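can u pls check wat happens w/ 6-O-phosphono-beta-D-fructofuranose
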Amino acid sequence: MAERSSFVVVANRLPVDEITTPDGERQWRTSPGGLVTALHPVLTEHGGTWIGWAGGTGEAPEPFDLEGIHIHPVPLSADELERYYEGQSNATIWPLYHDAVETPVYKRRWRETYRLVNQRFAQAAAEVAADGATVWVQDYQLQLVPAMLRELRPDLKIGFFLHIPFPPIELFMQMPFRAEVLRGLLGSDLVGFQQRLAAQNFVRLARHLLGLRYEGQSIQVDGRKVKAGAFPISIDTKEMERLAADPKVQARAKEIRAELGDPKTIILGVDRLDYTKGIELRLKAFRELLSDGKLKVGDAVMVQVATPSRERVEHYQSLRVKVEREVGRINGEFGRVGVPAVHYLHQSYSKQELAAMYVAADVMMVTPLRDGMNLVAKEYVACRGDTGGALVLSEFAGAATEMRQSFLCNPHDPDGVKDALMRAVAAEPAELKRRMRVMQRHLRTHDVAQWARTFLDALEAAAEGRDPEPDGVQST
Ligand code: ADP
Ligand code: F6P
């Protein structure tokens, strides 16, 4: 009998991934992505059980405890990995929910496996949750879990949070098993989104697709009320500030500047290598500014960290080719011996090394075509202390709703991106500090603990039929 918990998080990934080193040794390492960054400190504080996939295929490792969290791995076979994770989650739903910036692929067998794997996660949650427990289901990979879990365990309080955007009705309607996905989500007591507009899309969709009645953000389903609301996710601000102020990180930041040749301006990008992140357009903007003579190699250098991600999915393979071709082109045209224009790093780093990069960078470029939130933007702001620094931020990142003192740009407009970058490069230090201070103040009160608290309070109220309008949105 599995250990039973009063607080259970169900996510596709566990906070750690089991990997096999080149010497055949099995090791655990931190999982990639914003979901883990956000939820790890929440679970460390609350305790409870985290149900998720451990990163490999075949039998799941035995449950174990990690930093006060009970880890409950769920197995995936190689076929399931291909169909549920790479296929339905990351070649169908991911592009569709991100404005279809790449064409979504629809396959019947992927949907069938998605259903099967969602049922397995729901079953695991049903076994692990104590009577009346709170179960918090995460993200687009597990949208069927809330309804499946309610069927198995009607006594539970079930919350769902979508970390990525929720599409407008006309895009959602493309999906072949759209009604099933919507019914899956409606198994929750509370469905949380990053943005108000996403929550509105959701309640309107419930009426459009299933003819359900709603009032405000509350939908009537089978005699129950399901609430929808916006809860912009955030970071562990204090921890990020502490890390950035650490003398070792400060020293490493100086070393990075020196290694880059002490240029006037270091421009940094840090992303999973994902086509939603706008990495190519940012490189192109940099190339054109070098070509226009507005930036000069030696004075300015770009560092692009591109974390390996979903490497067997075709969209990701072609993106890698395009990005690496563009980096080669820029360095070929503008670099000199020992002085490349772009440093491209297709690697994962420790939190300390990333913080040192943030501290070293004068300009941070976050230019997604669409992004649920983008925690990198918030991490950069939290790391800047009193030193200013400029954040160039896409209007299409969720973070743009809050980080209003950034240099906002439309990533679809190359001249707009170039203009924002040049304004950031040329801004006076006093202005940069003023902008940073406002955003930092916001992050101190709107951190990940506040996000989790707001969501879980609203879930409690929704499950008990109390009525405060759930909403956590506020801008700087
Ligand atoms: P997403 O969830 O789409 O990956 P976010 O920007 O919200 O995007 O979150 C990314 C998270 O992954 C951040 O916490 C960031 O610090 C971390 N990260 C990004 N690149 C790397 C890397 N190369 N090594 C380690 N962590 C990384
Ligand atoms: O929120 C975006 C997200 O898909 C998370 O669900 C996930 O943890 C992260 O990006 C990284 O993606 P993946 O788990 O596919 O490596």
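The longest strand covers residues 129-138.
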